[in-house]
Amino acid sequence: MKDAFGTPQSLLVLGGTSEIGLATARRLVARRTRTVWLAGRLSPALEKAASGLRDLGADVRTVAFDALDPESHEENLGKVFAEGDIDMVLLAFGVLGDQARDEDEPLAAVCVAQTNYTGAVSAGLVCARALQSQGHGSLVVLSSVAGERARRANFIYGSSKAGLDAFAQGLGDALYGTGVHVMVVRPGFVRTKMTVGLEEAPMATTPEAVAEAIETGLRRRSETVWVPGALRMVMSALRHVPRPLFRRLPV
Question: What broad class of enzyme is this (predicted)?
Fold first, then answer.
């Protein structure tokens, strides 16, 4: 259960090597989170991430998880919930893809969609059912401002995030009143290994800033969190720009 300050005592990170996921885990462990599960492809990188959190004093365990293998999700994630209640699940996995390549290689585009959307639907439903069975918990879903409106520069990635965002909102409505809280997080450009070499968008942020926004959102029981917050107004305006004009914008 969450402590008196609203901090989850146990955390499951789907995408155990995600920089945003690990920044969030570090921040919560520094508060009062004591048990952390990192779900990802078993690798030295996953073990290194687990070791880093153990150094901070957390009880950290790893579990095999592959977004592209939904048939394994129920069994593998079920092992986590069988060990005890989970107060918070952070769905933090995803791939950016390469827009130019993916347009020329449809199977590569499909991989982006299957990772960011299909894999998230599967894992999200498995975790939501487990949280509902225990009667409490938060499911935090990392979406993106890219899902707000498709842009020529990254519409494959953006469309997958749009689907994820809509799914998470609907799931939150379906779980309303059950004791399970769903929060959608929409960061802008985040400086991570995934975005190295890309031109920074305005209002670029960091994994640590996203982690702080997640913690604040949890405390407030928010349903949607923008990072940084000013992006909410920016994207609201962009959604209403006429399409012929939108095509010409340098976004």
Answer: oxidoreductase
Q: Helix 19-31 vs helix 207-220: angle between axes, to the nearest 10 degrees?
A: 50
Write the pLDDT tens digit of every residue in 157-177: 999 999 999 999 999 999 999
Q: Which residues are catalytic?
A: 157
Comparing C-alpha atoms, which of 208, 203, 117, 193 is closest to residue 157?
117
Structure tokens at 111: 């991989």
Per-residue pLDDT band for 251 (boundaries 50, 70, 90) equals low
Q: What is the pLDDT of residue 249?
A: 74
The two three-digit tokens of residue 10, written as one number:
């146990």
Q: What is residue 3's predicted lDDT score, i.e. its pLDDT?
A: 47
Tokens representing 229 are 């917050």
Contact 159, 115 (CB under 8 A): no
Alpha-carbon distance of 148 to 8, in angstroms, equals 29
Checking if the pLDDT of 147 tops 60, the result is yes
